Amino acid sequence: MAGRFANIGFGFGERAVFATDPARSRGRLKDEPESPTRTPFQRDRDRIVHSTAFRRLKHKTQVFFSHEGDHYRTRLTHTIEVAQIARALARAFRLDDDLAEAIALVHDFGHTPFGHTGEDVLDELMADHGGFDHNAQALRVVTLLERRYAEFDGLNLSWETLEGLVKHNGPLVDRATGATLDGKTLPRAIAAYVASHDLQIDRHASLEAQVAAIADDIAYNTHDIDDGLRAGLLTFEMLAEAPLAGETLALVDTRYPGLDEARRAHETTRRVMTAMVEDVIGQTGASLDRIAPGSVEDVHDAGETIVRFSDDMAAREAGLKRFLFGRLYRHEAVMRVRAQAEDVVRDLYRKFMQTPTLMGREWAEDVGRMDEPELAIRVADYIAGMTDTFALDEHRRLFDRTPELR
């Protein structure tokens, strides 16, 4: 293709010059022999899929708790949807789709039980010990807490996958001053890790990481509409008022009058997803033509996020998020269950801090020699790794009354 959108390839032809080349990977913290059959990024993807943390995503909440129905998204199904979109976008720009998929598959490893509810409570409880951040926790999981291999802790992922995990949403610190870009303290786990393995947190991530990040936004915007309608917390009348989704619903109703609710919902959400994906492809293709990066290093030094929505779509997508926040995430029924889940996490944290030997097996090892900050980190690691169901089981084991989260 020549001229506008010349960098769109839809998976055909050779890898783009600005793509991450697995043959030039910066390697792993612990050197390993190369595989004769898989690239470094394929090995990363496979290690992620076979990890314990990946399996746990099956029973971790997205918005609706797992007992509420088999058809609602969990962290696992959300992750699979993100990976599918990320691969599609990566192929559109002739990127390394294995790396994009690996980053998409690992991006939620640090999430607690009960979705953002658990994260918020742990962040509050850990305020005196560096707080809690799910992105930093994901780094701890893949570099320390997964213990499956004989020669190292964690998964020993490649530099490029770790870089994408840590900064897929953009640089964390200002290149000139070293100050954090969000005004907060750099998460403890990230600061500790990059001190020994520099992930260049003052530069932009690869395009593979950037497509994984925007795929996350696209996936949860669309599937939360679907789940909200399925749960009866959103109605089509409400959806008609939502930016992007409302106009899409109107088009569906015009083309398919009298469509049953399940098909009406699916036709609407899939068109919303398609509109966002196509917008990203168009906008990003134009940005690549303008910036003309000649290498992955040019992407790192571009000074801007290249993979993004157009200004018009960004405004509509932000409006859709505001709609979902007000109508779904802060719905009375969701907030009631969220309050109950907060109590479960708070109870578990306080109980384990008071009597750490109550934690499971190896988690209780050496706790008698720990000071309070070390113990708090151990307890947070233990709770963050729990599924919703295990957290409730632990609460029932330790307390006389456990909420039903309904």
Question: What would you say this structure looks like, in words?
Answer:
Residues 75-221 form the HD domain. Pfam families: HD (PF01966), HD_assoc (PF13286). The chain has 406 residues and is mostly helical. It folds into 3 domains: 31-194, Hypothetical protein af1432, CATH 1.10.3210.10; 215-331, no CATH class; 334-398, no CATH class. The chain contains 17 helices and no strands. It has helices at 40-49, 52-56, 75-92, 97-106, 115-125, 134-145, 159-167, 188-194, 207-231, 236-239, 245-255, 261-291, 296-300, 311-329, 332-354, 372-384, 388-398. α3 runs antiparallel to α4 (97-106) and α11 crosses α12 (261-291). The chain is globular.
Summary, kept brief:
It contains 17 helices and no strands.
* Distance linking N and C termini: 54 Å
Number of strands: 0
Instruction: Give the SSE order as H and E letters.
Output: HHHHHHHHHHHHHHHHH
Low-pLDDT residue intervals, each spanning 5 or more residues: 1-5
Strand content: under 5%
How many domains, in number, for the residues?
A: 3
* CATH secondary-structure class of the largest domain: Mainly Alpha
Radius of gyration over C-alpha positions, nearest whole angstrom:
22 Å
The CATH homology group name of the largest domain: Hypothetical protein af1432
Shape: globular
* Mean pLDDT rating: 93
Q: Per CATH, which architecture of the largest domain? A: Orthogonal Bundle
- Largest beta-sheet details: none
In the CATH scheme, what's the topology name of the largest domain? Hypothetical protein af1432
Family: Belongs to the dGTPase family. Type 2 subfamily.
GO molecular function: triphosphoric monoester hydrolase activity
Domain HD: 75-221
Protein name: Deoxyguanosinetriphosphate triphosphohydrolase-like protein
